[in-house]
Amino acid sequence: MTMKVPGYAAQSSSTPLAPFEFNRRTPRPDDVVLEILYCGVCHSDLHQARDDWGFSQYPLVPGHEIIGRVASVGSDVTRFKPGDIAAVGCMVDSCRECHPCREGLEQYCEEGCVQTYNGVDRHDGQPTYGGYSQAIVTSEAFVLRVPQGLALESAAPLLCAGITTWSPLRHWNVGEGSKVAVIGLGGLGHMALKLARALGAEVTLFTRSPGKEEDARRLGAHNVVLSTDPAQMEQVKGAFELIIDTVPYEHDINPYMPTLQLDGTLVFVGLLGNINPVPNTVPMIMGRRSVAGSAIGGIAETQEMLDFCAQHGVTADVGVIGIQEINEAWERMQKSDVKYRFVIDMASLQSPQ
Asked: b/e per residue, 218-244, with b = 16+ CB within 10 A?
């Protein structure tokens, strides 16, 4: 039987989030049913609710940084049992057969991975609804084990902000002695600093705000460079093998390209859309430098990241809110008035409105 689940949804691109009750599917033999304990608030939740990317379907229940307790499991499930603490990230299915899926890169599924929300279930054609809700039903193959030792509310943003920055760090082989820079200090940027530092890299933050130096060093930066200061930018010319660009809006990357080493790469993890102004190819050609993009990681890589974070004590800096505060939290997030991720305590769904 389907189950009625309370949550919060956007009914259109111009309406605030409001209470919404909907049906979760009847669990399949390979399904895990999670009672959601915490759900992180990602900037993409706001983008999708407001249809900034042009493919939102309503009603839309956001949320893809989900930590929960296993309530029940299907007959074919072997890795989880009721009572376990588990997690669901940005995707809940893929074709599982194409080359990327077979390589553990489900996020690049050739048929398109199924998003945790604002997606379409591959089996029944129904819309997927996210973690701003009481419970979620997901195939075991896309459920993650939460290691002991992680504070659950602070672990929730690892499911998007964490893996989005971990995946390029791993792909470009960052390790002891690597020289990495991060552009932007927000939800993604603060995780990039923490993870790169924990991997043993020498880490630098590029920022336009002088007041962020103290926080950046607390989060793991060895150095802070004011990107609007030509003298400081000249001092780091040719310094970095990898730059992780976390800025989610159009911005000029040309000042950063000369700071890459030979064969260095600037990788976008925050911007979806055009690069404006257009990059000048001269520093790219003369230094065999690259501009690249990276999405989230696959399931195996996400589990690796969670295990690494537990081992090294890495979690997000969060502010815990009740679900009734979500619209205010979104407004604050737009103004960068959060250090560095809001997380919803889903027990608040049971509180009076």
From this structure: ebbbbbbbbbeeeeebeebeebbbbbb
CA–CA separation, 298 and 305 (whole Å): 10
How far is CA 96 from its chain centroid? 22
Residue 17 backbone dihedrals phi, psi, to 5 degrees: -65, 145
- State how far the alpha carbon of 121 is from the alpha carbons of 8, 27, 126, 137, in Å: 20, 13, 5, 11
* Nearest CA among 131, 109, 105 for reference residue 118: 131
Indicate the DSSP class of residue 193.
H
Per residue in 292-310, pLDDT (tens digit) is 999 999 999 999 999 999 9
| Prediction pTM value | 0.95
Q: What is the SS3 assignment for 270?
A: coil
How far is C-alpha 216 from the chain's CA centre? 19
What 3 state SS string does 59-104 have?
Answer: CECCCCCEEEEEEEECCCCCCCCCCCEEEECCEEECCCCCHHHHCC
Asked whether the predicted pLDDT for residue 1 surpasses 80, the reply is: no
Quote the tokens at residue 108: 């690049």
First to last CA, the chain: 28
In tens, the pLDDT along 205-249 reads 999 988 899 999 999 999 999 999 999 999 999 999 999 999 999
Between strands 179-183 and 202-207, the pairing is parallel
Each residue of 318-332: pLDDT tens digit?
999 999 999 999 999
In the block, tokens 């027990």 appear at: 347
The conformational region for residue 318 under phi > 0 = left, psi -120 to 50 = alpha, else beta, is: beta
Q: Which positions ≥6 away from 71 have C-beta within 8 Å?
A: 33, 34, 35, 82, 135
Tally of residues, the chain: 353
Residue 350 confidence (pLDDT): 86
In the chain, pLDDT over 70 holds for what percent of residues?
99
